[in-house]
Design a protein that fits this description.
The protein has helices spanning 10-22, 34-44, 62-73, 88-95, 113-124, 132-141, 146-149, 153-164, 168-175, 179-192, 203-213; strands at 2-6, 26-31, 48-52, 78-83, 102-106, 128-130. It has 215 residues and is α/β, with parallel strands linked by helices. The chain folds into 2 domains: 2-131, Response regulator (Rossmann fold), CATH 3.40.50.2300; 142-213, Winged helix-like DNA-binding domain superfamily/Winged helix DNA-binding domain (Arc Repressor Mutant, subunit A, Orthogonal Bundle), CATH 1.10.10. Helix 9 (168-175) packs across helix 10 (179-192). The longest helix is centred in the last third of the chain and has 14 residues, at 179-192. This is Two component transcriptional regulator, LuxR family.
């Protein structure tokens, strides 16, 4: 796995590089600004870009804008965004073009090495990894959506874990239920969110995006 890191904090940037190299991953470049990040992605064509939300010069949304631009230039690029805070608008902006190969984690997760590496690998494999705290805040924000109000508490638990990017086996383990029960809940979620079978769209992705984007 070839990785580019975009992080303006030099200590964190080098710490991430050392951590990933210790795990046998190939950090091909690091960058301290959004422009440097885009140049590194263009030059090295990595599998994954780790991107800080807030980067110079204004330290507002340069990282998110760079991530969106990097995906536009290189559609197959996986992006894992790191943020110091839960920033809902940035999470949904990043996911607006689709959730495959995208992740949004709080920086505190980096210290939980196994969780961080699991999220990185999931995103690199084309999956989704959304920080549980982001999902929790989005859950609170979406409680007035009438379609989501149809869901039972357990179905909301399942959808929240789907939004984190977990597969059915992992959801079953987290909730201590059978995979069959998870399948049943997901079928019910699709029905209550008015998502009939459709060969053109992935209902699982559509359900998660509807949940995250509060349509």
């Amino acid at each position: 796995m070839r990785i580019v890191i975009g992080e303006d904090d030099a200590l964190l940037r080098e710490g991430l590089a050392l951590l990933l190299k210790a795990e046998g991953l190939d950090v091909v470049a690091t960058a301290g600004t959004a422009d440097e990040l885009l140049a590194a992605v263009d030059t090295h064509r990595p599998d994954v870009a780790l991107v800080d939300v807030r980067m110079p010069p204004t330290h507002t949304d340069e990282g998110i804008k760079a991530a969106v631009e990097a995906r536009r230039r290189h559609p197959g690029l996986a992006i894992l965004v790191l943020s110091a805070y839960v920033e809902q608008a940035f999470a949904t902006e990043l996911l607006a073009g689709g959730s495959a190969g995208l992740g949004y984690l709080l920086k505190e997760r980096v210290g939980r090495v196994e969780q961080f590496l699991d999220a990185l690998r999931r995103v690199a494999d084309g999956g989704t990894a959304i920080d549980p705290d982001v999902v929790t805040q989005l859950l609170v924000r979406t409680r007035t959506d009438p379609r989501l109000e149809r869901l039972s508490p357990r179905e909301r638990d399942v959808l929240a874990l789907m939004a984190e990017g977990l597969g059915n086996t992992a959801i079953a383990e987290r909730l201590v239920v059978t995979e069959g029960a998870v399948h049943k809940h997901i079928r019910s979620i699709f029905a209550k969110l008015d998502l009939p079978p459709d060969d053109q769209n992935d209902r699982r992705v559509t359900a998660v995006l509807r949940y995250l984007d509060h349509l």
